[in-house]
Design goal:
The chain has 266 residues and is mainly alpha-helical. 82% of the residues lie in helices and 0% in strands.
Length: 266
């Protein structure tokens, strides 16, 4: 399909030399690109590429619209206008199927535009077709290759852009993960300090009670292993400190009981 319309581009150039009544060569040239870009959009395997080629097609249709000022073919005005509107909507497409829908609309309208241009210039086109053996096929092949090469370059550029976006995405995720880790470490430090203060208050309270009861032969002492606690989760830190307080309380009660027994013996 692309080859046929690329060849049509050269027929239109010949037609320009044969007729001065209506210059449709510019319209023909750009409608070929519009059709090619819509087909590339339909061949795309992701929404980003599909939207890119739809935008290229829309730009080509706008050039067709400008070229129609020199082309006596009013029948194509509405087709081109509709195509521009449909392809413009592709910008907001979030799903690949939606992008395909607008690209397909553009493709159908591009084909209809070419058919209308054929009708408008049928007499001169027939003359060109009868002399098509004079067309330089080598030049045609070179221009077609150039267009395909351009499309391939655009695809490669888009792939590079996609890779760059993916790289930035990975970087962003890493930065977010690092920030979350720093926030978690800060929360752990705050929790450990809070628990450390709670344990210290309990130690002071129990030791003061033992002294008041004259049961302070052995002073209660507790130290938290902060290094090990930092490697635990927030819930595990709380659980570990609760265990320490339980053990401290148990030792406090035991010391009170032993002191009371000693008094009874005396």
């Amino acid at each position: 399909m692309k080859k046929a319309y690329v060849f049509l581009l050269f027929l239109s150039t010949s037609y320009l030399n044969l007729s001065a009544q209506s210059d449709c060569s510019g319209a023909y040239s750009n409608i070929v690109y519009a059709l090619s870009h819509t087909e590339s959009a339909l061949d795309a395997n992701n929404v980003t590429h599909a939207k890119h080629f739809s935008e290229r097609a829309r730009e080509a249709f706008e050039r067709v619209q400008d070229a129609l000022k020199k082309c006596d073919c009013d029948e194509v005005d509405d087709l081109v206008y509709d195509a521009i509107n449909y392809l413009a909507k592709s910008k907001t497409a979030e799903k690949l199927d939606d992008a395909y829908y607008y690209a397909n609309k553009g493709k159908k309208l591009a084909e209809a535009t070419i058919e209308k241009l054929d009708i408008c210039t049928s007499d001169s086109i027939d003359t060109v077709v009868n002399n098509e053996n004079t067309v330089n096929t080598e030049t045609t092949a070179i221009d077609e290759t150039g267009e395909l090469s351009s499309i391939e370059d655009e695809k490669n550029q888009l792939e590079q852009q996609q890779l760059e976006l993916e790289r930035r995405q990975v970087e962003l995720k890493q930065r977010i993960a690092q920030k979350k880790k720093e926030e978690l470490d800060l929360k752990k430090e705050e929790l450990i300090l809070k628990m450390e203060l709670t344990v210290a208050n309990n130690v002071n309270t129990f030791n003061a009670a033992l002294k008041a009861c004259e049961c302070d032969e052995e002073t209660l002492k507790v130290s938290l292993e902060k290094g090990k606690l930092k490697s635990k989760s927030l819930n595990d830190i709380k659980a570990s400190v609760v265990d320490v307080i339980k053990e401290l309380t148990s030792n406090y009660i035991k010391q009170l009981v032993d002191c009371d027994n000693d008094d009874d013996d005396n």
